[in-house]
Amino acid sequence: MRLSCLACAVALIVIAGCGGSVMTSSETEDGKGGAAGHAGGAGSSGAAGSAGKGGSAGAGGVAGAGGVAGAAGEPSDGGAWCYGPDSCSAEEWCDIEPAPPGMCSTGGKAGTCRPRPELNACPDYNHCPNACGCNGVWYCSDCEAHADGVSVTADNTWCMDAGSAQYSADAWFGGLDHVFVRKADLDRNTCLVLHLAAPYEASPGLSTPQGWGLSAAFISNSAADCSGGSGPGSALAAKTVTGAVQFGLGDGGYLPCTVDVHVTVDFESPPPWVNAKELMDADGIPVAGGCM
């Protein structure tokens, strides 16, 4: 009997330890609640999840192609841009005027190709030359230079003779009076000669003192020919001479004391030692045998 009671007591203790409620017979009869059980232990936290892998970076977009540069504009007056005579056609000249004094360019700025005027449409001038071309040649006017495809300079710098040029002149009289003007180019070893005579008819394009005209003009390939007389060189006759020759006369004299010469001498199909346009440009050349 004691063992049965002891077993019942142990069972009741076990049930109470598990959080249940046990009512005694007396409590059941009285309707009273049982004692509160102990709270259950907190559950263990779950393990944290693994972090997800990062996605691959997207590929960069293709850069857009650059636009094509626009073409350079044309001059407002319709001509093409140019930087010298070779930039224009054979029927045009490169207008770089007005250029700074002593220069035949616009300082890097473009000029404009313009149609060449007709030579016979250029006005006549009594005093030539008036225009210095960028090719180093004198012209009677800007128009005549442009007709030759050449711009003109703001001053005469480009038409001055090189330091190697030596001028001389001599005169003698007879049935015809004669004046020779000579230019020896020591660097090129040439001699350029003008032969004026009086009385003689005037020469077209050449301004000379009254009663005087051009008898001949030629160049030789020996500067020694300009020392007077006939030298060892071979001579080539000029096609045309344009410009002006003026005399400085003494009191009541007829043969000049000095000569001023500003002319362009043209040669047709010249050999390599001759320029197609030769220049004479000097003032106050003493005349041997003159001043009479």
Strand order of the largest sheet: 9-12-13-14-6-7-8-10-11
Point out poorly predicted stretches.
Answer: 1-46, 60-73
- Provide the gyration radius in Å: 57 Å
Please state the average pLDDT score. Answer: 72
Distance between the amino and carboxyl termini: 189 Å
**Main sheet attributes: strand count, strand direction, barrel closure:** 9 strands, mixed
Query: Strand percentage, roughly?
Result: 25-35%
Note the total helix count. Answer: 3
Estimate percent helicity: under 10%
Give the structural class.
Answer: mainly beta
Large-scale geometry: elongated
Number of distinct beta strands: 14
Order of helices and strands: HHEEEEEHEEEEEEEEE
Describe this structure in words.
- This protein has 292 residues and is mainly β.
- Among the domains are: 81-159, no CATH class; 165-288.
- The protein contains three helices and 14 strands.
- It has helices spanning 2-17, 25-30, 142-147; strands spanning 81-82, 92-95, 111-115, 131-132, 138-139, 165-172, 177-185, 190-198, 206-207, 213-220, 235-237, 240-248, 258-266, 277-288.
- It has a nine-stranded mixed β-sheet, with no helix packed on it.
- It is elongated.
